[in-house]
Design brief:
By secondary structure, this protein is an alpha+beta fold. It contains two helices and three strands. It comes from Phytophthora rubi.
Amino acid sequence: MDQVVEVLNSCYLESTVRLPQTLHEWHVVSIFERVCGVPNEVGAIDGSLFPVRRFADYEGWYCRKGFPAFNMQVVVDSNKRIMSFSIRSGSQNV
């Protein structure tokens, strides 16, 4: 597991994890801390599974809970505005 984390960090850490840099990002950080009591947070993340009817070509659409679904993940800022999202087949963790 340590090797996997090391490889992921070397490939993705700089492009996905960074400290706030702009005045707007620091403003969002201060709002999150005031509202949620969590320091140094720029976005909140959540994911959900949305059931769908089974397709004729259903391979890959069954989620970890055993039904065909869309797997959606959303990141929002302190004003609940969407910063990023991902929608994939149910078997793909976002």
